[in-house]
Design brief:
Number of strands: 7
Distance between the termini: 21 Å
Helix content: 25-40%
Strand content: 15-25%
Largest sheet: 7 strands, mixed
Number of helices: 5
Shape: globular
Structural class: alpha/beta
Bound molecules: guanosine-5'-diphosphate
Length: about 210
């Protein structure tokens, strides 16, 4: 069974000091607006409307928390790079997102969703600059891979792997994984699910009073 199938919406948060208590394990999803993050979360959780909550007017710029089991959460971070977001909200996020990525203890790993045709945009690399120094694992989903031929997809995969290895992984000793993904074709679901489960397993000692 897909691990994220248990996901249930819990709360939307606008400010760093409103975040739920910092204990347990969180896996965050980030991505440029329109990259396919909501579709990826919906596919991985096998729930068509789960990330719909993050798309409702007024909620797109919030941090949305979903419970995926006791003391485990999936965190849907606001999509970035959307030109129509007012300057004041952008400024707010430029302060809040790095704080979340750099200070949150429960955050066990970051999934960054990128459109395979436009990977590693300036803001994606900004996310990597903020989070890679924490040496926690980062998984990149190159989504919409159905839009490219197999050859082009594999080339994009290999290019992105090379760039993250030399620009972040080698410098910060951060574990990076990159995969092809398509919500439309349901491609790559198992691979992503396994990676997320492995992060949760690695961090089980963060769960209070867990009887193993
Ligand atoms: P978000 O803004 O990052 O949450 O992006 P969405 O999940 O809302 O997707 C943006 C657009 O891309 C929508 O029109 C989706 O139907 C489309 N999309 C998302 N994932 C895929 C995919 O794997 N393949 C294709 N062809 N389209 C996709």
């Amino acid at each position: 069974m897909a691990f994220l199938q248990n996901a249930r919406f819990v709360i939307s948060v606008n400010h760093f000091d409103e975040l739920p208590i910092d204990e347990g394990i969180e896996i965050a999803f980030a991505g440029r607006s329109n990259a396919g993050k909501s579709s990826a979360i919906n596919s991985l959780s096998k729930q068509n409307r789960l990330a719909y909550v993050s798309k409702q007017p007024g909620r797109t710029q919030l941090i949305n928390f979903f419970s995926i089991g006791e003391h485990m959460s999936l965190v849907d971070l606001p999509g970035y790079g959307y030109a129509k977001v007012p300057g004041a909200i952008k400024d707010h996020w430029v302060k809040t997102l790095p704080r979340y990525l750099q200070e949150r203890n429960s955050l066990a790993g970051l999934v960054i969703v990128m459109d395979i045709r436009r990977p590693l945009t300036k803001l994606d690399t900004q996310m990597l600059d903020w989070f890679a120094p924490r040496q926690k694992p980062i998984h990149i989903l190159l989504t919409k891979s159905d839009k490219l031929s197999k050859d082009k997809s594999l080339r994009a995969l290999s290019d992105v792997k090379k760039i993250v290895q030399t620009q972040w992984a080698d410098s910060f000793h951060t574990k990076f994984t990159v995969q092809l993904f398509s919500s439309l074709k349901k491609q790559g679901l198992e691979e992503a699910d396994e990676i997320i489960q492995s992060w949760l397993a690695l961090n089980k000692n963060h769960i209070p009073n867990l009887v193993s």
